Amino acid sequence: MVHLDVPPVTSGLAVGSLVAGIISILVSFLVVCVGAVGGGPSGVLAAGSFATLGGLTGAGAIVAGLLGSRQIRRPAPPPAVRFTGRGLAIAGISCGGVGLLLSLLGVGLALLLTLA
Known about the structure:
It is built from three helices and two strands. It is mainly alpha-helical. A two-stranded parallel ribbon has the order 1-2. The longest helix has 34 residues, at 40-73. The protein is rod-shaped.
């Protein structure tokens, strides 16, 4: 019996996590800009709606990164497909966390500027 060597495949969850993390950071910059420039309660509402998008995207990036790193760590017997991309998963988790944090800070800035 012959076992063919299957080359390792980059995890789709890890790649998706990185893409979602980068999108979360970009949306969080939009939250900061809208919160700083948009005056009054309408600016807070706009920043809050974009922060919801950025927060959900960041949380999704974190979950996908954790699932991707779990998929990569799992041992596979020789004929099965092995997954790579541990660095992509870690970067996705990091970017998702930063995007989530920046979104929360952007809403806080919008509230602070409205109350001042």
